[in-house]
Write a structure and sequence with these properties.
The complex is a heterodimer of chains A (about 230) and B (about 425).
Chain A (H helix, E strand, L loop, with lengths): L1 E2 L6 E2 L33 H35 L5 H20 L4 H24 L5 H25 L4 H26 L9 H19 L1 H11 L2
Antiparallel strand pairs in A: 1-2
Chain B lengths: L6 E3 L6 H5 L7 E8 L5 H12 L7 E5 L4 E5 L7 E2 L18 E6 L2 E7 L5 H20 L24 H5 L27 E8 H10 L4 H20 L7 E8 L13 E4 L2 E2 L8 H15 L2 H16 L1 H5 L2 H16 L5 E8 L4 H4 L2 E8 L8 E7 L2 E8 L5 H12 L5 E4 L3
Parallel strand pairs in B: 5-6, 9-12, 12-14
Antiparallel strand pairs in B: 1-4, 2-7, 2-13, 3-4, 6-7, 8-15, 8-16, 9-10, 9-11, 14-15
The chains are: A mainly alpha (about 230), B alpha+beta (about 425).
């Protein structure tokens, strides 16, 4: 006989956890647990959910695969060679990397999916650079630093969210990082185009982002401000 | 010459259920009986076949007419099936096509799952007891005597068993409006449509009765009050901007008011509850509200007026000539507006189940369970047998906040609860 330490209800011998609060049943004295007949036949319900997820993932994959096969085929039949379809193939593969993992992955979904997406973005942009303009190295000069910055920003935000510093603070830091991203974009684009290095449009964006971040931080600390206002009101 | 099959109109309460049935959901309930020994499937099949020769209701299949659904007698065999982990799944399809019920077995238990168009809980309990009586006769060779409402294979058929009691007893003096405010709905992670979570609480009846007496209410009123309190706590936790009334729908067996022997539907619902906009209610206040509401509304005159209102819609000449497919759309819309949306949950108490000593010595327990709501909200049903009340919560949501609140409230009041579940 086991009782849930959380709810106080007596639990049937066949239960491995309390169905009300999911607290696991640990009863070292109960040796007969293995032989107990369960109250209902066991069909492994979780597997049904997994199966549903797998069906959706397979369906999406099948749709992408159809495009992957049909595009080169149509292109080849019409033009006798692969022209436009060689750009479509990596695009479809990139789209698959962005859509299927969120359906299949259930634990630490955000971390794993963003890692996959960023890796896929690196590969996709490198391939597109090679296919479209192999002599102009825009991937190495613009994409690599920008993607590395995005990776760094994501790691920073994820670490902060794990440490639970507060949603408002994380959103504020996100805004500041987005502002810096705009400045970087302008810097690397101008450098790549061999223009004079100066910041035209990105500075107002950065200032606005810092402003929004400041307002958000103030809102999050509003409880303290109201305490000051209470004492200083005229 | 081919013999013409008997057919029956659906009763007033039954008419809504085929119309709102979807490919994944149908309004069902389930009654089960646990024996002290393992069920013999061959004997159970034989018992069902034997009792079907006597109980007409178990030989009916649902058919579509041009204007209404109807039941038609059939001699098609009904095969018993092994039970599934999620009970009360959609009825229809599988082995038994359009039969409005199925009989299942697992280990020492057999159950009858019934589509609500066929019968109500009281009718279902008579089917369950009658199949069990025949099974015990076959299994142990004991002759079961005539006892209360149990139908024996050799008993005489009464046409009253098939009557539409609503039509017989409606007086049409006045009609009662059904306008009500929409109730609070618990929301959570929706389980796949073929899954239902079941949590059974086994409660000593004497302790529950004693506690209910302390509050000067009946056991049903007491349980409804605890349910309302649990739903209220969930609504408070969900921090909704506008708090909605918490109401629990309680079926009333009209056979207690009218001397009908029908095995079909003959029940109506009353919806006691509280309105949080008036302020916070203590548990004592909730019990008082429920008690007085039930006493006020559970009266023949009021219930007859509700019955007449329901029947007047059915008798409306415009409604009658609308083709079935259009009627189904209208009924589905009406169900969405007035059906599940008005209440937070349902509690159906079948009361004490009595069996003759010849049966009681082989029967361990009797349970009653409602199928999950279309919207998935948790609902409860109870039956008491042999000093215990078996209360089953069924839900289409993964979260168990309502059930937890309910059972922990009982524990806090000093009523012990033993829990079983299909969620291992």
């Amino acid at each position: 006989m086991s009782y849930c330490v959380n709810c106080g209800v007596e639990l049937d011998k066949s239960l491995k956890q309390c169905p009300l609060c999911s607290t696991p049943v640990i009863n070292p004295n109960d040796v007969a647990v293995e032989e107990t007949v369960t109250t209902y036949p066991v069909e492994h319900m979780e597997k049904i959910v997994k199966k549903l997820r797998l069906i959706s993932a397979n369906l999406v994959t099948a749709i992408f695969l159809t495009g992957l096969l049909l595009c080169p085929l149509c292109n080849f039949v019409i033009s006798d060679t692969l022209t436009w379809s060689k750009y479509v193939i990596p695009s479809i593969m990139f789209a698959w990397c962005c859509t299927v993992p969120p359906i299949v992955i259930r634990q630490k979904t955000l971390l794993k999916c963003v890692t996959i997406d960023l890796t896929a973005a690196f590969i996709y942009l490198a391939v597109m650079n090679y296919l479209t303009t192999p002599n102009i190295h825009w991937f190495a000069n613009i994409c690599v630093p920008m993607l590395l910055y995005l990776c760094g920003s994501f790691i920073l935000l994820y670490t902060l969210s794990v440490k639970k510093i507060g949603v408002m603070y994380i959103i504020s830091i996100g805004f500041v990082l987005a502002g810096i991203f705009c400045m970087m974009t302008e810097y690397f684009v101008r450098k790549f185009r061999l223009l004079e290095i100066e910041f035209v449009w990105s500075v107002p964006v950065l200032i606005s982002c810092i402003g929004i971040a400041g307002v958000l931080i103030i809102i999050s600390r509003l409880s303290k401000i109201s305490a000051i206002r209470k004492r200083l009101h005229i | 010459m081919k013999q013409e099959k008997n057919w029956y109109r659906l009763d007033n309460a039954a008419k809504i259920y085929p119309a709102v049935r979807t490919k994944k959901w149908s309004g069902n309930f389930r009654l089960s009986m646990n024996f002290k020994e393992k069920v013999e499937p061959e004997l159970l099949q034989k018992a069902l076949d034997d009792i079907r020769k006597r109980i007409v209701n178990l030989n009916l299949e649902l058919k579509r007419g041009l204007f209404w659904y109807f039941f038609e007698e059939t001699d098609r065999p009904v095969l018993i099936q092994p039970e599934k982990q999620s009970p009360c799944g959609r009825i229809g399809g599988e082995h038994n096509k359009d039969m409005p019920y199925r009989v299942t077995y697992y280990h020492n238990r057999f159950a009858i799952e019934i589509f609500h168009a066929l019968a109500d809980g009281t009718g279902g309990l008579i089917f369950l007891k009658s199949i069990a009586a025949r099974y015990i006769e076959l299994r142990y060779g004991e002759k079961i005597p005539a006892f209360q409402d149990i139908i024996l294979c050799d008993s005489e058929y009464s046409p009253e068993e098939m009557e539409d009691a609503f039509k017989r007893y409606a007086k049409f003096r006045t009609l009662k409006s059904r306008s009500e405010l929409k109730g609070y709905h618990f929301r959570g992670t929706v389980l796949p449509s073929d899954q239902t979570s079941v949590i059974t609480g086994i409660i000593p009846f004497a302790k529950l009765h004693e506690k209910a007496k302390e509050y000067q209410v009946t056991v049903t009123e007491f349980i409804v009050a605890v349910m309302i309190q649990s739903f209220m706590e969930c609504q408070e936790k969900s921090k909704t901007r506008i708090e909605k009334p918490v109401k629990v729908s309680v079926p009333v067996n009209l056979r207690k008011l009218y001397p009908s022997k029908t095995l079909r539907n003959f029940a109506l619902y009353i919806n006691p509850g509280i309105e949080p906009r008036y302020g916070e209610f203590t548990f004592e206040e909730i019990t008082e509200e429920v008690h007085h509401f039930m006493r006020m509304n559970n009266k023949e005159k009021y219930l007859n007026a509700i019955m007449c209102k329901n029947l007047s819609d059915e008798f409306n000449p415009v409604v009658r000539v609308i083709p079935l497919f259009m009627k189904n759309i209208a009924l589905f819309t009406a169900f969405k507006m007035y059906g599940e949306t008005l209440v937070s949950s349902t509690f159906s108490n079948l009361g004490r189940v009595d069996l003759p000593p010849e049966m009681a010595e082989h029967v361990e327990r009797v349970e009653f369970m409602l199928g999950k709501f279309m919207a998935g909200m948790p609902s409860a049903a109870a039956a008491s047998y042999n000093g215990h009340l078996y209360l089953n919560w069924t839900s289409g949501f993964a979260e168990k906040d309502v059930e937890k609140g309910f059972f922990t409230s009982l524990i806090k009041m000093g009523i012990p609860v033993r829990i079983e579940s299909n969620l291992i």
